[in-house]
Amino acid sequence: MSEYILELQGITKIFPGVKALDNVHFQLKRGEVHALMGENGAGKSTFIKVITGVHKPEFGKMFLEGKEVKFKTPKDAQESGIAAVYQHPTSYPHLSVAENIFKGHEPMKGPMIDWKKMNRDADALLQQLNADFKSVAEMGTLSVAQQQMVEIAKALSTNARIIILDEPTASLTKRESEELYKIVDKLKESGVSVIFISHRFEDMYRLASRVTVFRDSQYIGTYNVDEITNNDLIKAMVGREIKDLYPKPEVEIGPELLRVEGLSRTGYFKDISFNVRAGEIVGFTGLVGAGRTEVMESICGITKADAGKVFLEGKELKAKSPQDASKNGIILLPEDRQKQGLIMDWSLGRNVTLPVIGKYAKYGFNNEEAEREVSKELLESVDTKAVSIFDKVNTLSGGNQQKVVVAKALAQDIKVVIMDEPTKGVDVGAKAEIYQIMGELAKQGYAVIMVSSEMPEILGMSDRIIVMCNGKMTGELLCHEASQEGILELAMEKHNGGNNS
Amino acid sequence: MAGKSGRTISNTPDKSLKSRLLCWESMMILLFILVNVLCICISPTYNIRNVFREMPKYLIEMFLLFPMAYILVLGDIDISVGAIVCLSATMASIATNNGVPFLVAAVIAIVVGMLCGLVNGCILTMFTELPPMIVTLATQIIFFGIAEIALGSGGSISLTDTAGYKAISAKIGMVPVVFFVVIVFAVIFTVILSRTTFGRNVYAIGSNRVAAYYSGVPVQRIRLLIFTATGLMAGICALFLTSILYGANTTTGKGFEMDAIAMAVFGGISTSGGKGRLLGGIISGFTIVCLRIGLGQINMHPQLILIILGILLIAAVLVPNISMAFTKKKTA
Asked: For residue range A55-75, what is the model confidence (pLDDT) as tens digits?
């Protein structure tokens, strides 16, 4: 038997006009956890699709257990014991967990589904993964983390020997990620080989023994995780050196711009009080569901708070809609770019000027020429990688989409910028650029609030850190007195012994 | 804050002749010409004079097309407009027969229509999670119901005094007055949708309602306004319809909403919202009017005309899908 359970040599995949993969190599050891990293568009997803039989490569060979294989359909790959778990679980939300796990290979009793056996087997698999829900639960009621667990159980139910996890931690909280790490450890122990794609370095350090890096459709190299430094890895991924991932500028902190007093909304958050000053970056962190986004939405008038007051430059502000908030200079960059932040099938320019068309219009008639000027200027100022302002937003990568969201905010008269998960799904090169922009905003005297679950960016960019847990503020730390452990403790306070989701 | 890479982004729009000729509206103009050539070939009586003479009864549905285009671009739908036309026409006729002067009756028709639209708009903007299809289906039944009760056991009403109505069904030269009114509304509605901030916001809502709301677009206020305006236009439509029918009955306005939606979709306005231009809808409206006149002149069965229109409509919604499949094959 060969040392490698899966080996790919010289894989080249050509789409009309683009080489999506160019002579790529990959070796997966038995029982190994192997990280696959690279910027968005580096070819990771295409590569995964070659392994799972979705795409057929033009050149190259693939060996499974030392024997050459050629997958014609995804089913071939499945039958050979390769299963993929995608970032957004592709499940049937109205069916039960057991039905989802055994979809397509239900245990049968004659012509009928053997429900008892199905539920029993499903429960056994879930127990193996330490799941805290039952096989009869409805899929749609589970959290993303739990749904991912179901997907992994589904992979195990097909006796998969190789499991591919595509950005599994992207929509998970810190704690849910910890749970996932444990599951991956278990898989490893039971002899399953795991390939996982992630933008998070902590995932890689925690899980993987080796890491393969792709850049611009090409194979860059495979490294042992304990031998490569952070900077070398970034350099391999980005192709240039990023000296400082968190370029926090020295800024003179000005007067208080925003003050929130005793803001409460029943069932979501309670008694939230804080202030943000000009030039300051305040980080809001906590577990997903702690109520951070909900607080921001209330400040911006998207939802109504039951109690409490918001003051902008000392004057009370009662925003009833995002329109009210933005008129007064409070701009929210929402968490979900594609659903809340941008109109995906509109051009960049149209998106940037949407909140301010009225400002340039004469007697209600749009001044398209002025709009084009302004959007070009703003998009260039945040260094968007695009050819024309008439490009559609959905053709851009996540990082560049986020820059369009920022440009759209800059088009307005801002005082306070609220960035909700600004680097979600953004690769490391673009991340550094977004931090740079965030620093510039502070430098220009805006008050910046950053809501984030990613500890490194909270620690790296914030002047002050506010931690929330179960809808309450559990702590406020100054940048230099904060540590990852300290924050985590506050984020999970009074949480121990509660539910384990 | 200057870009570090100095990368420049182009902002010159594509004004090439090719992109202009290939747009949906150009296709519609071509189709309009083709339909007219066809009508001239099959019907010896198809000439300008006759077309203008027969035009009003088909043309009045265009009053509904204009606001319907806005509603479809919003991603909404309103299938109660036909019923609003019926109710407005009924109320105006009853008023006239009770000795009310024409101008007052006209105001009644428009106000009744506007109130009906306001009801639709209020329900849909206060309970935003309700599907507009079901809500306007319900109000359609209600409006027809009220009209039937008002019409009484006979189910119809005839005007006893047609003086004022004759004025709006008159002609200037050989061109009917209603034609000019339609053109004026066509220009107003098209310019507002394509050139103003309000129009851009309508497209934003239809393309992504949540993102539009987060960007500060007053989503519900705009929806309320458009549903109310739709009712108002239905009232105007009812007024002109009454001037042709000299009365109203329980089937007045039936199916008008579907004709208006068909004209809009045929003109390239997508029912999923955010796409299409009113200009296309207007050209397609005139195309359908001409086709109906031509086919009517050769005594083609009305149902057969409907079948032809139905087939054309399916073809129209298929074209984008087919062309998308082609471009996908080329690039993928």
From this structure: 888 899 999 988 899 888 888
Residue A247 pLDDT grade (very low, low, confident, very high; cuts 50, 70, 90): confident
Q: What is the mean pLDDT of residues A256-283?
A: 93
Q: What is the mean predicted confidence (pLDDT) over B9-19?
A: 74
Task: Provide the pLDDT confidence category of residue A167 given band limits of 50, 70 and 90.
Answer: confident
Rounded to whole angstroms, how far apart are CA atoms B231 and B64?
Answer: 9
**Superfamily for domain range A256-338+414-491:** P-loop containing nucleotide triphosphate hydrolases (3.40.50.300)
pLDDT > 90? residue B201: yes
What pLDDT shows up at residue A155?
Answer: 86
Whether A256-338+414-491 and A4-238 are alike in CATH topology: the answer is: yes
> Distances in Å between the alpha carbon of A272 and those of A266, A473, B131, B180, B295?
12, 6, 36, 61, 71
CA B139 to chain centre: 18
Contact map slice: B 263-282 vs A, CB within 8 A = 274
In 3D space, the residue among A188, A196, A161, A224 whose CA is nearest the CA of residue A6 turns out to be A161
Rg (CA), chain A: 24
Interchain CB contact of B329 with A (< 8 Å): no
Q: Calculate the average pLDDT of chain A.
A: 87
At A17, is the pLDDT very low, low, confident or very high (cuts 50, 70, 90)?
low
Give the span between the Cα atoms of B51 and B32, in whole angstroms. 14
Residue of A nearest to B193 (CA): A365
Q: Where are the domains of chain A?
A: 4-238, 256-338+414-491
* Set of chain A residues whose Cβ sits within 8 Å of the Cβ of B4: 383
Strand order of the β-sheet with A67-68 is A67-68, A59-64, A4-15, A18-29, A218-224, A210-215, A33-37, A193-197, A162-166, A82-85
CATH class in words for A4-238: alpha beta
Indicate the burial class of B177 (C-beta count within 10 angstroms; 0-12, 13-18, 19 or more). Answer: middle
Cβ density class A302-334: b for 16+ within 10 Å, e for less: beebeebebebeeeebebebbbebbebbbbbbb
Q: What are phi and psi of A12, to 5 degrees?
A: -125, 125
- ipTM (interface pTM): 0.84
Distance to chain B for A326, nearest Cα, Å: 7
Closest partner residue to B331 (CB to CB) among A16, A381, A389 is A16
Mean pLDDT of chain B: 89
Domains of chain B: 48-317 (1.10.3470)
Residues of B in contact with A381 (CB under 8 A): 1-3
- Return d(Cα A297, Cα B213) in angstroms, integer: 12
Give the confidence band of A495 by pLDDT, cuts at 50, 70, 90.
very low
Instruction: Please tell me the predicted confidence (pLDDT) of residue A499.
Output: 40
Which residue, among A31, A1, A27, A25, has the nearest Cα to A11 in the 3D structure?
A25
Determine the average pLDDT of the residues in A116-131.
88
Q: Which residue in A342, A376, A440 is closest to B9 by CB distance? A: A376
Smallest CA–CA distance from A341 into chain B, residue:
B211
Q: pLDDT-based confidence at B21, cuts 50/70/90?
A: low
C-alpha to C-alpha distance for A119 and A125, rounded to whole angstroms: 10
Say if A367 is an interface residue toward chain B (CB within 8 Å): no
Burial class (CB in 10 A: 0-12, 13-18, 19+), A196: buried
Q: Which residues contact B253 (CB under 8 A, 6 or more apart)?
A: B81, B82, B83, B84, B85, B86, B89, B234, B237, B238, B241
C-alpha dihedral (A376, A377, A381, A386), degrees to nearest 10: 10
Nearest to A163 by CA among A71, A77, A84, A90: A84
